[in-house]
Amino acid sequence: MKKVLIAGGCGFIGHKVAIEFMKAGYEVVIVDNWNNYNVYLIRDVEDKYQKRIQNLNGALILQKNICLDRITRQIFEEERPDLVVHLANFPTATLAAQQPFFAVEQIVEGTLSLLEAARCTNVQKFVYISSSMVYGDFKTDSVTEDHEIRPKELYGVFKATAEYMVRSYTRLYNLTHSIVRPIAVYGPTGHDAFVITKFIKATVNSGVIKIKGRDTKLSFTFVDDMAQGIFRAATMPEANNESFNIGSGVSSKLTDIADFLQTLNPNVQIELEEADPLYPKRGALNIEKAKRMLGYAPKYSIKEGLKIFYDSIQH
Ligand SMILES: NC(=O)c1ccc[n+]([C@@H]2O[C@H](COP(=O)([O-])OP(=O)(O)OC[C@H]3O[C@@H](n4cnc5c(N)ncnc54)[C@H](O)[C@@H]3O)[C@@H](O)[C@H]2O)c1
């Protein structure tokens, strides 16, 4: 049986990735320190982690910090994974901007610690979950993987740096890699800081949906579709030493999403605010490469995903 080590496997996306691997018969080892990024209330964070691990029976969960390189190395020496999937990073650009020194340690040093451990224990493949933020402002409405890497803010800079390190380990040490660039993932147990989580919570509580910018569009991806894409990039040989955009392939206006949520609860209010000037201008990621080479096929429309998320909080 093949063994996968998933760094960040108790996270919002990571736990769904772990489920994909368990369904496919892999032995799953998770390294995750239940990070609260110094911002979330411990009680709320614990609640989300508890919900996620309910579905991870059968996985070995090690509550350790990947930035501690000696401990990470020891885990790799004991567990000897064939494959590593790295999702143990900050989830949002805003959090990274608020704590840049902490963010650079977590994203850059954390990735280096895993790469070194992988190199020293002859891991076959390293999969890095990067971000669409590495592109900065999108030059076209639908961005392909060969778009210029020109991050606008620090989070994108740190994620791009981690990507360069991963590619460098392939050139220097023959460590095979795949890089996945997700965009705006949403769904049950998603972080409270995410725009869709805020909208859903406002809807459930009959509160106010606050929209930054009348014309703001984003390409949202349901978490199960993201997990499918990451699993394919991690396990298919066609993905070796390649980078892939994974998303829904379409973008939605925040005002349309709010209007749809108002049909689920007519008592929710909608308010328009100024757009955030620091946020990169972004349309949809072009996902043709992942469709063509990996057979990736997102299954959830935005309305289906929103309804599942809404129902998960209602019940
Ligand atoms: N959620 C999105 O919309 C989105 C978009 C683009 C890219 N990504 C990338 O996907 C990855 C996962 O994002 P997510 O939304 O699931 O975030 P998340 O915070 O839910 O998941 C990250 C997991 O890694 C763990 N972790 C963080 N630092 C760690 C450390 N030092 N040691 C051990 N474990 C640590 C956390 O405890 C958490 O369980 C991140 O790399 C993020 O940059 C996410």
What attributes does this structure have?
Rossmann fold; 315 residues; 11 helices; alpha/beta; binds nicotinamide-adenine-dinucleotide; seven-stranded parallel beta sheet; 43% helix
* Distinct ligands, ions and cofactors found in the model: nicotinamide-adenine-dinucleotide
Q: Write down the secondary-structure element order.
A: EHEHEHEHHEEHEEHEEEHEEHEEHH
How many strand units?
15
Biggest β-sheet description:
7 strands, parallel
Q: Which word captures the global form? A: globular
Helix amount, in percent? 40-55%
Structural class: alpha/beta
* CATH homologous superfamily placement: NAD(P)-binding Rossmann-like Domain
Radius of gyration: 19 Å
Unreliable spans: none
| Tally of distinct domains | 1
What is the helix tally?
Answer: 11
Distance between the termini: 37 Å
Written description of the protein model:
The protein has helices at 14-23, 42-53, 69-79, 93-98, 100-120, 154-173, 195-204, 223-235, 254-264, 288-294, 302-314, and strands at 3-7, 27-31, 60-62, 83-86, 125-129, 142-143, 176-182, 185-186, 208-212, 217-218, 221-222, 242-246, 252-253, 269-273, 284-285. The longest helix is centred in the middle third of the chain and has 21 residues, at 100-120. Helices cover 43% and strands 18% of the residues. Helix 2 links the parallel strand 2 and strand 3 (60-62). The protein has 315 residues and is α/β, with parallel strands linked by helices. It is globular. The strands form 5 sheets. Strands 3-2-1-4-5-7-12 form a 7-stranded parallel sheet, with helices on both faces. The protein has one domain (3-185, 222-247, 287-299): 3-Layer(aba) Sandwich (Rossmann fold), CATH 3.40.50.720. The structure holds nicotinamide-adenine-dinucleotide (NAD). Nicotinamide-adenine-dinucleotide is lined by residues 8, 10-14, 31-35, 65-67, 87-89, 91, 106, 110, 129, 131, 182, 184-185. Nicotinamide-adenine-dinucleotide binds next to helix 5.
